[in-house]
């Protein structure tokens, strides 16, 4: 695959005249198209903050694990000073590929970097990766879904088989479900074809679905939302963009904003601060509601909920 070198605006690193001279190369790695707004936010964040001249190496979305690892190695061989990763899988691949040469990784985002082995702690990552994470908000998201759809006894939770991101989130959801007194119907699927087959056999009694932090499944937010609408299912997606595409609600982040957060950390790395010393940041969370979806489901949204939420549809 040919790497595309995308020239960014020339950015001067404030107070670092020596570091400002040499252009930096940032490799970008992702296995899911849904994460691309984070890349846009990252570029915008760097432009606003100021920094050294930067060019980007980006070979596009690489969904296959073996190809993702090969792409990570190509970014390292191509002289990347830093690799920006947009999913947990990509972060793990980049960290492994850059281990010998010490190429730093900034993830935007990664799910539970402690559980997945990306960092040793959040305050002091201790290795060669830092970035933005999430995870504990999943409990709050489930709680919001149940408040919106009272009387729910079971929530359908599909996830991509073997993907470390949803696998890191599921224990949090299970713990929350036990506390909230509901059951989770978890189902591992193999890609979009596997999910479509799973949805086709979903019991007609299903009334609520929560897609965990799973970039492979979330890349099909629009199709999943259309299915949920047709079958009267209250759908929760992990990010606001999914709500904008038709899901009922989310308690999560915006991918664009998350990329902007990561730009601050990347600028520190590019100025010479080791990732081991840059704390992992938590993504900024908010409640998002789609009132059109709520209307179709016959749900009554209280004024208090509306005041707490970002409303994405009239």
List keywords for this structure.
elongated; alpha/beta; Rossmann fold; 314 residues; 3-stranded mixed β-sheet; disordered N terminus
What would you note in describing this structure?
With 314 residues, the protein is of the alpha/beta class. The chain folds into two domains: 4-134 and 254-284, Response regulator (Rossmann fold, 3-Layer(aba) Sandwich), CATH 3.40.50; 137-253 and 287-313, Response regulator (Rossmann fold), CATH 3.40.50.2300. Helices cover 40% and strands 22% of the residues. The chain has twelve helices and 14 strands. The protein has helices spanning 36-49, 65-77, 88-97, 137-148, 164-180, 191-200, 215-218, 221-231, 240-244, 255-270, 291-297, 303-308; strands at 4-7, 24-29, 54-58, 82-85, 105-111, 129-134, 154-160, 183-189, 208-210, 234-236, 249-252, 281-282, 286-290, 309-313. Strand 4, helix 3 (88-97) and strand 5 form a beta-alpha-beta unit. The longest helix is centred in the middle third of the chain and has 17 residues, at 164-180. The protein starts with a strand and ends with a strand.
